[in-house]
């Protein structure tokens, strides 16, 4: 009896230890539960941006390193073989996060159950083509794909339009997918935003990650306005305004702006091909920040449906500074706009209003 009593304490301790171990294992297992995969559509996936973009998505650059993904890739019939090749390479890369790949030329199959749609496919402007002719081809592509997305994608699908004219293609998509919340349809100006960060970091010989809060206003075209009036640099000793550190308003108001506006053309000149890796990377940044949020005190540029903020006409897709939280973007309010900026913001808005009426004339 005495022996049993003396055994009681160690047994209770052992029991407690075992129970604690079970609880820790349970919590650990719970924390390690794999997330449900997110389905991402990339249209124009056999093209050069698509080829750079899909491996980035499969590696977690878009949705995070612990988010499994299923990738749907859409292209047109003449690119079907090339698309098959991209699928083979995705399989060969054995990405642990990649839970499935669909490569198709069927727009309905491509759009089924999609949570995020990155619209890269479109009709490029060829030599000798009128603006209206290119617009007309893209309007009919975006009208058809809007309907397919509306019918077959997840109801809260987030859409990023990359293909040019990106702002107006996004507007057409919004018009022809009326049941999608208008906040879910955006276009890519993050590449221009990143180019602006890159130019400032080169000029100051600092890391691009230390520069923040540049703004791209307006159209993803040569009328866009890259604005550094509110941009800062983290000097390690507090934030300092970019204007103060650069100390050269002539450069900031002229060469800097035209360099960012013309960067796409300069890359074509150098590569004999348009930007692809930087465009793919910017598409990942755009969706990443939209879904997972912008860091505190930081904004990014996104082409979104104008609500009239900053005197921009409502009813166009215009690039604004935005912050994102819980999967929703909001336009940063209350920034001071000087006369120089006002004129440039109005000029790019005017171009978008003209593009909108050209697009609408193509629908008739
Ligand atoms: N917003 C930006 O910052 C930005 C930056 C760079 C390029 N772009 C634009 O992105 C687009 C793609 O550029 P790219 O270099 O990959 O071009 P690309 O020509 O290499 O690829 C485009 C792909 O789209 C496909 N396609 C054409 N019509 C389609 C349709 N109806 N459905 C699905 N796919 C279709 C083509 O077959 C091709 O594979 C272009 O419009 C380009 O101007 C935008």
From TrEMBL:
Keywords for the protein's UniProt record, in alphabetical order: NAD, Oxidoreductase, Tricarboxylic acid cycle
Pfam families xrefs: Ldh_1_C, Ldh_1_N
Recorded catalytic activity of this chain's protein: (S)-malate + NAD(+) = oxaloacetate + NADH + H(+)
SUPFAM superfamilies: LDH C-terminal domain-like (SSF56327), NAD(P)-binding Rossmann-fold domains (SSF51735)
The protein, known as: Malate dehydrogenase
GO molecular function terms noted in the UniProt entry: L-malate dehydrogenase (NAD+) activity
UniProt: substrate binding residues: 125, 131, 164, 195
Family membership: Belongs to the LDH/MDH superfamily. MDH type 2 family.
Record flagged with keyword NAD: yes
Xref: InterPro entries: L-lactate/malate_DH, Lactate/malate_DH_C, Lactate/malate_DH_N, Lactate_DH/Glyco_Ohase_4_C, Malate_DH_AS, Malate_DH_NAD-dep_euk, Malate_DH_type2, NAD(P)-bd_dom_sf
UniProt entry tagged with the keyword Ribosomal protein: no
Ranges of residues in domain Lactate/malate dehydrogenase C-terminal: 189-357
Binding residues annotated for NAD(+), in chain numbering: 44-50, 75, 138, 162-164
UniProt domain Lactate/malate dehydrogenase N-terminal: residue ranges: 39-185
GO biological process: malate metabolic process; tricarboxylic acid cycle
Active-site residues, Swiss-Prot/TrEMBL: 220 (proton acceptor)
Species this chain originates from: Olea europaea subsp. europaea
EC number from the UniProt entry: 1.1.1.37
